[in-house]
Amino acid sequence: MIIDGRNADARQVDETNLLGRRAGLLNRRSFLAGSAVGLGALGLGGCATSDGMSLAEAAKLYGPVPEEKFPIPAADISKVDPKYFRRTVRYETKEAPGTIIVDPGNYYVYRVEGDGNATRYGANVGRDGFRWNGDAYVGRKSEWPTWTPPKEMIKRQPEAAKYARGMPGGLDNPLGARTLHLYQNGAYTLYTIYASSDPETIGSGITSGCVGLLSQDMIHLYSQTPVKTKVVVLPA
Prior knowledge:
alpha/beta, L,D-transpeptidase catalytic domain-like, 9-stranded mixed sheet, disordered N terminus, TAT_signal
């Protein structure tokens, strides 16, 4: 695994890109919550994406999750390239079933299912200069975790000081609904796989080395991932 001084402040997510979006995020909530209904009203149920999934199926897959502690609105799938929608694919690997494989060069995360298959998720990944590769494991798991900005970020962005003691879990928290914290040799790497509320980031490099999945995808992956699960991050 490659970790150097450039990543010293890589605390969970790329703070500049993700915290900066929060002001506009609330204004989008009502639209996002209604996106699944809107697709049906437009009569798009028979239209298929280039990846073989109908828009109606995608709208259902990424629909609202009202039973959560903080109800999650539907993702605006119009902002996601259909190739990043969750699906089962052929994926040959020697890794054991359950292993998570991150392919940052193609913006995918795979969960190995066995028999040559894997569940594939679209992702956002580290931006240039902050990508890393190697083996890690899930050291702990968090639902609606607290996010604490690092001192380095507060120094650069004084407005983040109000969260110096931690931002409580919620829809505006950069870590989202679920987080897998990645460890090596018993030590927290500061890297995570987290739930993103920003569909437009899927398929891009924006973070300080963390990996984000759409909230609905992250909940799906999280539910099948026990602590100690192996995580392999491929070279970009």
